[in-house]
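S1.2 Input.
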Amino acid sequence: MSRILIVLSAADAWTQADGTSQPTGYWAEEFVVPHEAFVRAGHAVDVATPGGRPPTPDELSFSPDIAGTGTEHYARYLADLSGTLDAPLDLADVAADRYAAVVIPGGHGPMEDLAGDPAMGSVLNAAAAGGAVVAAVCHGPAALLSAVGPDGAWPFHGRRLTCLTNAEETAFGTAAKAPWLLETRLRECGGIMDAADNWAVHVVRDGNLITGQNPGSSAALAAAVLDALAAAVLDARGAAVLDARGAAVLDARGAAVLDARGAAVLDARGAAVLDARGAAVLDARGAAVLDARGAAVLDARGAAVLDARGAAVLDARGE
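S1.3 Output.
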């Protein structure tokens, strides 16, 4: 089974546009429902927050008038999980490559801290680069704003996603004093917003990015994450992972890819291929082979060697 990281906000207040603050935290349903689904499916789940501080659930998420049915169950579940929630991992200490998925529940808390947290950004960059599932629901996608790629670009630019919409924020009564609106900010950063009607269950998957629109979408988001994890298969040694199409295999570091026959390995840039022994490299056209030092090239028959400039040919003995 896989290991999943759930990242919760550690904020207990949300700074408003007028400088006042509003009590907040994470939304209980958006944590409990996915956590319960992942554990039931047999996955190991870790919880992390900025600074390893105990997270605060938004009290409104226990109100049946606001959160609907299930609030008593959420409270009991959180009480049973108090040992984990009282001592979460410090997000800055998290090794993202240990996790097959990173899941971020909402509540307004992520807009206060996770949206600009460098450790959150590092985890998301590593997860996205390594092919891990990145999932967020409601205001959880605010955390995506923390990620900045090596080239300074937002790694989720041009990706389809959803979040609590501006219309839903307005209907909930929190848009007027919000310092910024999440849907607007994600669009400004280059996200392609896919929104449904207010409070409709709506989940969007774009590759390894999975997002849910609102609290009611929590169960559907969890199911989509489980489906995505089921599509990745570890070998018997747990050292290799097939992609969702079953056509390629990543090594344990996620830096190399075996072809469908398991006979060749692409380098991290996908531009060269090592043979089964890892001692030779085919060029991008697959017509020539570099030696282990990358300084000489064997022809397709492996009988002759071009020098690094391609100007001379040595025999098989290098003479």
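S1.4 Remarks. The chain has nine helices and 22 strands.
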